[in-house]
Design goal:
This protein is α/β, with parallel strands linked by helices. The chain has one domain (7-125): 3-Layer(aba) Sandwich (Rossmann fold). It has helices at residues 31-46, 67-80, 94-104, 117-125; strands spanning 7-15, 18-29, 52-65, 84-90, 110-114. The protein has a 5-stranded mixed sheet, sandwiched between helices.
Length: 127
């Protein structure tokens, strides 16, 4: 018997109009994950006048997206893309690096792939 592990950890900090979103995923991202995450993000965005979002995405245990979750991701990027300032995706697979490059097309800011968590956090902290 194969055990499928799945988990989504969402952290969100807001300082004035700046938001720091931290995501850690195990397994495949699902539509239910987006149903849980998006309202949290949108609630924080509603309280900010000119929001700027920085994202740390730990994808080291990410196996991909369900089709409906990929659609949810696209909708999120189209709706709030201009508010994303920096997205740092940490992973170890070539497809994750390519996904980061494609995702950058849908945001107003910069998205970069890292293999090292420290380097990703340093980049997010730099202005």
């Amino acid at each position: 018997m194969t055990i499928k592990r799945h988990g989504l950890s969402v952290g969100l900090e807001r300082i004035n109009d700046d938001l720091f979103l931290s995501l850690r995923v195990k397994g495949k991202l699902t539509h239910k994950d987006y149903e849980a995450m998006v309202p949290i993000l949108e609630s924080a965005l509603a309280e900010a006048r000119h929001p700027k979002i920085n994202v740390f995405f730990d994808a080291t245990e990410l196996e991909g997206w369900e089709a409906r979750a990929a659609w949810d991701d696209l909708k999120l990027g189209l709706k709030h893309g201009r508010q994303f300032h920096k997205v740092a995706l940490v992973g170890h697979k070539r497809w994750q690096e390519l996904a980061t490059k494609v995702g950058a097309w849908f945001i107003g800011g910069d998205a970069r792939f890292f293999e090292d968590e420290e380097a990703a956090m340093a980049w997010l902290a730099a202005d």
